[in-house]
# Entry
Amino acid sequence: MKRSYSLVALILLTFFVISFLTNIIGPLVPQIIEDFDLSLTLVALLPFAFFIAYGVMSIPSGMLIEILGEKKVMILAFLVAFGGALFFGLFPSYLVAVGSLFLIGSGMAMLQVVINPLLRAAGGEEHFAFNSVIGQLFFGLASFLSPLVYSYLVLNIGSEGQGALLATLDRLVPSELPWVSLYWIFAVVSLAMVAIIAVSKFPKVELQEDERPGPLAVHVELLRNKTVIAFFFGIFCYVGAEQGIANWISEFLSTTHGYDPQTVGATTVSRFWGMMTAGTLLGLFLLKVLDSKLVLVTFTSGAIISFLLALFGSGETALWAFPAIGFLSAVMYPIIFSLALNSVEEHHGSFSGILVTGIFGGAVFPLIVGSLGDAFGLRNGMLFVLLALGYILSIGFWAKPIIRNKTIDLFSKSDA
# Structure
């Protein structure tokens, strides 16, 4: 099938925007706790509302693609996200935030179901692991920027000499809740993506029959496959670990070591995602010279060690150990996803929908960490994440892909 690099570029932009909207919750946690007077369990319901949407919307989204097509579903997804962001921007309260995040999460779930099979088809099956890591690069870059945008907004809205953008946001948000301005930014970005996709000419990319989302009977058949279930839990555990760590970094540094969440906390979260971007660059090289299973085992082992250092080391240790986890987590999601799709012979579109459903692990883990944190302290609650990291580590030993990632032999001699 003819490859479409323009479509790959649009998918990478979509990865960027998904991340920008998704991973800002963590830096906001201490501020939300203070402004809405919440327990750790109640604040954990916010990421729960966002990520549970993946469990609700992913499989129906796959079926919707068959009816409307990829372009219309992407437009609809960003319209849903726009509505969620605008809803909270107009009526900022805890209960509205829960509903708003569910709508934004629903839009992101629809996008994930669309773009993963498209990336495999447009970029080539043998390059899927590599292209997925490039997607993770864009994902990490946006996650690095969003906490910095948060810090900039909360520190500068209402200040003297603010520019037109800050002045406009200052008029839109309550003076005591400057961080709500982020949701107005989300609304504008979502609407801009609607416009970009609407005017874009989607290249003719014919998905193979096995790459299209199938009917309910196909999903039932796949759910009886032990390999499908095993990789579903791989995605569930990865996103659970990622969000179970990222959403609590700022609060952990504040309550355990006394660091300011608006500056040190937000910066550390930003570095977590920034180092994920750096780890992605290394991952791109390693996936060209090493088997992806070996890369997964090596990086996950390092992440477990760094996580323990972050929890039980000094405050200064935590400030570099948390970003180190981001660096070492960079390759996990794309490798798990590509190993999964390359481990079955058919129904890749439907399988993709099932895998994306596993993203609701990002709802479960932060909630469990918060509940355990209320009962036993946040450090002890965060230890629950080790279960997820252990499962990810195991994938590197039991995965048996039919198609392996294409590698280059650096030491082979060319024929004379």
About this structure: Residues 410-416 have pLDDT under 50 and may be disordered.
